[in-house]
Amino acid sequence: MNLKPEYVAERRSGGQWRPTVPLRLTYARLMAVAGFKPLAANLLLLRSADSLWDVIVLAGFTIDHFGLSAVGIAAFCYEAPPVFLAPLAGAALDRYGRKRMVVIYSLLAAVSFGIMGVLGGLGLLALPVFYALVTSASVGVHFSQFGLKTLIPVLVDHRLWDRANGVDTATFVMSVLIGPVVGTIALALVGGSGPVLVMAAMYGAAAFATARLPKIRPGGTPQSLLASSWSALSYTVRNPTLRGLVLVTWVFNFAYGFFTVAVSVLVSERLGLPDQWVGYLWSVSGVAGVVSSIVAGRISRNGRERWLMAFGCLTISGGLVLAGATHSLAAVMIAMVMIGLATGPFDVALFSIRLRRTHPDWVGRVVSVSEGLNNVGSLSGAIAAGLLLESGVVVAFNVSALVPLVGCALAFLAIPRYADVFEYGRNPNAERGRRRPAPVEV
Question: Is 126 in a helix, a strand, or coil?
Fold first, then answer.
């Protein structure tokens, strides 16, 4: 059966595969889906608030109240929960309902940042209390975003997932542009605690907006949370596609995490420019990322995901080499554009193939586990940047550029061409005339 791009094979009752009703695969059709526009706005709101932490709160608020020595522990308290608690949080998404848990996670972040901002403004914020609030806020911040992403396959027809993931990635890149601007205005108007209070307000607004999304069927896994968490981790490790995606994403995020740290050193030591140029350069990368995300959402199809991920790894590797080898501001800006161009196709392909090859009953747990494991790559890249940059800028950038090149090979070696267990919306028996077993419901 040779299907046109606007058709997708779908299994109907009786075990027969038949083409679905044609659907115009456009962004206009996606925006007409009930609940998708507020969902995308929520993602942009949550991610913009999250970028405030990275750009302003972690360094500015923490140093002002507790000194430079507290920054490292605060960063660990913020980044560690999604790594260690991802299976448990994902199990809660599937067991108690994704919409309900997103509201709870958003309120947890809002309350944590609200208490932090009020106590900080009054001068009553103790260091142990600060660490505890950062940890609880991290749980709310990360898992509210994970939960919203799992609502995409619930609200959107699977034939529009590529474009939905393009919009999802675009909101991530746009948040890098919006968050620092909002934080700077709050800092000028309110003072040191202003950005923290703004974050609390943004998460509170996100909780309210999520509660107004269309009614969504709650989860119903009969297992306990611990048993469900272990099952999710086992499912991710045993699934060939999900296991390969973790490996490829780790090496890509390693390069991205390295660059987030190294670009500051590049601007100050190599180019001799003031610190605000770091923000300008990331803005250039953000614009390129938005464009590449929208384009990637249009061209992504079943079977193209591995090529898009390999393109992302190759492009970010080239950007690292160019940035480390030049003393020109123009060349560094071109490298930042390459970073943005790499992010869009890679993320769109990653999210699309992960949704297609994950059984719907496991989406909440799998997304949380996968995103938690992916954070390890970014952390590893940031740590490696501090170690490698001591050997010189050129050496550090060239060594880090080798890592995503491994990802180009892993995209084809570690990720199966065909789904071995389950693939949503595809007829395995019709692939290029090859007979393959039908998907097994797990």
Answer: coil
